[in-house]
Amino acid sequence: MAQHSYDEHDFVSFDGTRIRYQSYGTGKPIVLANGLGGTFAAWRHVYAALGDRYRIVCWDYRGLYKSARPRDVSSVTVPNHCKDLAALLERESITEAVFMGWSMGTQVNFEFHRDHAHMMKGLVLLNGTCGTPFDTALGIPGSKRLILAGLELMRRFPDLVSKGSGLATSWPALIPIMQQLGFVGRTLDMDVFSELADDFVGLDFETYAETLKALGDHDACDQVTRVQCPALVITGDRDIMTPVSTARHIQGRMKDCTMVVIEDATHYATVEFPDQVIASLEEFLLRAEY
Question: φ and ψ at 78, to 5 degrees?
Fold first, then answer.
């Protein structure tokens, strides 16, 4: 699909860290919280479809992509991402919105709900969980230990990881192998995924490892039953990172929540089956009267 231009701006957050954010479209605000391995590009189909009626706002997490590395790298915690979000919303004069999160963004939104539930007119959760994601990821015994070991290597040898990532993303067989292993689907939007991969290679992998470790320790599952606004959970039946059972557990504990399971979708449902995701979003926004 054709790329749609959007605005980018910076602001200084609570501890002096420079945060980059993006905006697109006009109308009532929809706030997007990214996955850990994604930029605004991951939402390209969504903001292109909704931007004629809504103002879509997103940001790069501190230390990742175009946001600056904080002076204290240990500050890359979910509560601090929420402080960055609060500063962004104040800058943009947003007092209420529908909040959407993909992967890590679902945890960010549950944590943001803790102190800002009054701002949420609706909550959309895509391919995510409410906390301690390493406990359910991959669906294999000992997966948490494997993930933590990988993060330690990434933290200790960030330059090596960066070089290895560059070689991997330039390897033509990478995506076919990922498809065979079930990490991505065969309907993947290759243009979007290639852009995500190119941006990923340029990350500060020490900060990335710290961010992922903090995410693994974070738990906002106490907020699930407290959500009063309309909610929508979207997942894929082939998502090995956050399986359907995780999504069903969240949906079953929420007061006003519908769930959509997209057949053959993986963790990247938004760029594999964008038409189905957008149709579900349109129906939800109508139900939420937003």
Answer: -60, -45
The 10s digit of each residue's pLDDT in 159-201 is 776 666 665 666 576 676 667 766 777 888 888 878 887 887 8
Each residue's pLDDT tens digit, 224-243: 999 999 999 999 999 988 88
Helical ranges in the chain per DSSP H: 44-50, 78-91, 104-116, 143-156, 158-169, 174-181, 190-201, 205-217, 244-252, 269-272, 274-287
Question: From the first residue on, what is the mean pLDDT of each consecutive set of 10 residues in the chain (290 residues)?
Answer: 78 98 97 92 95 97 97 96 98 98 96 98 96 69 64 68 62 68 78 82 87 92 97 95 91 96 94 96 96
Q: Do residues 46 and 274 touch, judged by C-beta distance below 8 A?
A: yes
pLDDT at residue 193, as a whole number = 79
Answer whether 43's CB lies under 8 Å from 270's CB: yes
- pTM here is 0.90
In whole angstroms, how far apart are CA 241 and each of 20, 182, 206? 27, 10, 22
Domains of the chain: 7-287 (3.40.50.1820)
Distance CA 34, CA 41 (A): 10
Is the separation of the CB atoms in 256 and 282 below 8 Å?
no
- DSSP SS3 for 260: strand
122-to-31, 118, 168 alpha-carbon distances in Å? 10, 10, 39
